[in-house]
Design brief:
The protein is mainly beta. The chain has 2 domains: 74 residues, Immunoglobulin-like (Sandwich), CATH 2.60.40; 509 residues, Beta Barrel (Maltoporin, Chain A). The chain has 4 helices and 42 strands. The protein has a 22-stranded antiparallel β-barrel. The protein has a 6-stranded mixed sheet with strand order 8-9-15-16-13-14. It is globular.
């Protein structure tokens, strides 16, 4: 611990530089709201600047004092002030008495690639999420090629993501940059986030910021929920589909006064037996979920305080249909309580300087029954992240530093096909870290973000040093070239992260496991262009992940499930090309193609392709809207390439594939939306050609026999056929 403190002190002290040649300030309106994009210059000179998104600016000192500073912005009276010495400024602009109404006809892209940030990030807005009527987070990426989604098994209804060719456990999923899906939430957590709660999704590829934690191997998916000031006063969403699923979402927002709040509610219900493939198992588990979150926020010129409280209860019932000859029960229960807070303080006399504290407390209880395999887990977690932001000389040199603390207590029991006793096993993971991140901006053409973390893990008694670097260069105004490199670290939870494999008769073996470590390297080019007067974007990137120490999930033997640390090589290479273009008025086309090369060394010292990971994927999305978005049409086609299926003697017979590789397939989705003033009605379909995996449950006739080859976990394609849905959205802003 002393080493960490010394490192932090030395690092922070080395940057303790006082501003010398810059005058900094902030431009606000009469309500003290920031005015971004205001012009700032010295009268009679060409020395100037502009305010950023927070209304802050820095400008080089004049040659001599006194000098007159001039600030201007459209719709406001020009401001002048005589400055006699270097000082910090708070400038108030007054609106002009008369401003003619201007009608702007424009187009808002629902998926945005940034050419400004040093980190490779794309943002999905509400408009993109509504294209798929996404019921939860797992259904939010059907029009996005970066994130792959598939079922984990054929009995629980759970889904998983893959990013850069790696399992979802290697992607850090956060809510407003605080931990969200980790630990016991890993198995079913994607279904705990209703799509209607989300205002935007930020997808970061590769190494992100050290400020947000140590677990990002492939990247980060950050969710921004509706804030009280941006949320509708009332939002009501109702949904049903052809299988009989019902969902209801209600959002309320109170916007008056300094304290604002909004309430999120979600209820999902499905209680129908569906066995379209006649294998004796429910194709879709019966699910009941109640999910409630309340947010409170306070803002003034100096402070921002926010709290959330959340509760969730979910039950899943699957397995064999009623009165089956060989009953196999799947019964999964989750209950979750979570409290989070954010407190931020801004120095009014020092624009660009702030401090913030993030906290999270969570209790998650889970029981899962898969036939004879019984799992019980309780996770009690606490999280603290203290962040200080300042600048060095000018706002072109920014510094963030702070400390974080993770505390996780796991109480777990497992009975079933396991080679060692695992009853009331208690593990406490404590992670204490410090971090520092320096950002440099040179004009508008070059950005650099360099950071390092030092995290002490109690169970290994080691300090893990995690450096990260992100650079961006703009050769032209419309092009951005990026490079990133970084190291990540995580502690695996093998039972919950691989719960799908409990739906089999495999004998489970768990070795003495050490934390996982990997390096990620990436390069990206983003180019915005105009062709025939219409806007388009090309985005190309390539990423490589090299594991130093990985926990191998070995399912190469149909009778065994083994967990052990890597001895040999394990890597993932992913390349992707995206193109977005407006073909004609209100008609957009989006195309993407991705190639994955993911391999791992198994205990038999043979390097093989990671199972159930598609080699390539392609996407085509067509979207058209009539004037004023009264009617909106959206069609998406997904191509999913072949993936390797582990050894199993029933695969050639039951699945019909040779050499243990799945066949490529296509998925088609479509949606039509009719918009009224406060009311939307939508109708759509998923998997319109009804493509499903043949015999997703192997040896389904003998699920309870210990000698059978029963396995419901080797899933590479949809297990449900065509699904038609309909719903409505009602908003009062």
């Amino acid at each position: 611990m002393k080493k960490i403190i010394i490192i932090a002190i030395v690092f922070i002290a080395s940057f303790n530089t006082k501003a010398q040649n810059q005058i900094i300030g902030k431009v606000v309106d009469g309500s003290e709201l920031p005015i971004p994009g205001a012009n700032v210059h010295w009268e009679g000179t060409t020395i100037g600047s502009a305010t950023n998104g927070d209304g802050n600016f820095s400008i080089v000192e004049p040659t001599v004092f006194p000098a007159t500073i001039v600030v201007s912005f459209v719709g406001y009276q020009q401001y002048t002030q005589l400055i006699e010495a270097n000082t910090q400024l708070q400038i108030y602009l007054t609106p002009t008495l008369e401003l003619k109404e201007v009608k702007v006809k424009g187009k808002v892209n629902t998926t945005k690639f940034s050419t400004v940030n040093s980190i490779n990030m794309q943002t999905l807005s509400v408009g993109e999420l509504e294209k798929a009527a996404c019921c939860n987070l797992s259904e939010s990426f059907s029009t996005n090629a970066t994130v792959d989604v598939n079922f984990t098994d054929a009995v629980s209804g759970a889904k998983k993501i893959q990013m850069l060719g790696l399992d979802g456990a290697y992607t850090q999923i956060t809510q407003e940059n605080m931990p969200l899906i980790r630990g016991i939430s890993s198995a079913y957590g994607l279904s705990y986030v209703p799509g209607t709660w989300i205002e935007s999704i930020q997808i970061i590829k590769g190494s992100g910021s050290v400020v947000n934690g140590f677990e990002s191997f492939a990247g980060q998916i950050n969710l921004e929920y509706y804030k009280p000031e941006s949320a509708p006063k009332l939002f009501w969403n109702g949904y049903t589909n052809s299988e009989g699923k019902l969902e209801n979402n209600l959002l309320f927002a109170k916007k008056s006064g300094a304290w604002k709040s909004n309430l999120f509610t979600h209820v999902s219900y499905f209680d129908k037996e569906v066995d379209n493939n006649k294998d004796g198992f429910l194709d879709i588990p019966k699910v009941t979920q109640v999910n409630v979150l309340n947010r409170w926020e306070y803002k003034d010129n100096n402070y921002h305080i926010g709290f959330t409280a959340r509760g969730l209860v979910e039950d899943r019932l699957g397995g064999t249909i009623e009165n089956a000859l060989n009953p196999y029960d799947v019964n999964i229960h989750n209950d979750l309580l979570e409290f989070t807070s954010k407190t931020g303080a801004i120095q009014p006399n020092s624009p660009g300087k702030s401090a913030g504290l993030q906290t999270s407390f969570r209790r998650h209880n889970q029981t899962a029954i898969f036939g004879e395999n019984n799992y019980k887990g309780l996770q009690e977690s606490a999280y603290f992240n203290l962040i200080r932001q300042t600048y060095i000389g000018s706002t072109n040199h920014k510094l963030k530093y702070g400390t974080s603390y993770y505390a996780d207590k796991y109480t777990e029991s497992f009975s079933g096909n396991i080679d060692t006793a695992f009853t009331d096993n208690v593990r406490v993971d404590l992670m204490t870290g410090v971090f520092s991140e320096y950002s440099y901006k040179w004009g508008e053409s070059f950005n650099l973000t360099a950071g390092i973390r030092a995290d002490y893990y109690n169970n290994s008694e080691e300090i893990n040093y995690l450096p990260r670097l992100n650079m961006k260069y703009n050769p032209t105004e419309k092009m951005a070239i990026r490079f990133s490199a970084g190291k990540a670290f995580r502690v695996a939870n093998v039972f919950v992260e691989n719960a799908s494999f409990l739906a089999s008769n495999r004998e489970i073996s768990v070795g003495n496991l050490n934390p996982e470590i990997a390096w990620n390297y990436g390069a990206n080019i983003t180019y915005c262009f105009y062709l025939f007067g219409r806007e388009g974007t090309i985005n190309a990137d390539a990423y490589r992940t090299d594991f130093e120490n990985q926990i191998v999930v070995d399912i190469e033997n149909q009778n065994e499930l083994s967990f052990y640390n890597l001895e040999g090589v394990s890597y993932a290479t992913s390349m992707q090309l995206d193109l977005a273009y407006e073909l004609f008025d209100r008609f957009d086309i989006k195309m993407a193609y991705k190639i994955n090369d993911v391999k791992i060394t198994y205990d038999d010292e043979e390097i093989k392709e990671t199972p159930l990971s598609p080699k390539d994927r392609a996407l085509l999305n067509l979207a058209y809207a009539t004037n004023f978005d009264k009617w909106m049409f959206d069609v998406t086609a997904n191509y999913v390439g072949e993936s390797r299926i582990p050894n199993h003697n029933l695969i050639p017979v039951k699945v019909g594939v040779s050499d243990n590789f799945s066949d490529p397939f296509y998925l088609y989705n479509a949606q039509v939306t009719k918009k009224f003033r406060k009311f939307d009605v939508y109708v759509g379909g998923e998997n319109l050609l009804a493509y499903i995996q043949d015999n997703p449950i192997l040896d389904s006739e003998n699920p309870t026999s210990s000698s059978s080859a029963f396995d419901a976990s080797l899933i590479y394609a949809p297990i449900n056929g065509r699904m038609i849905y309909a719903g409505f959205r009602f908003k009062i802003k």
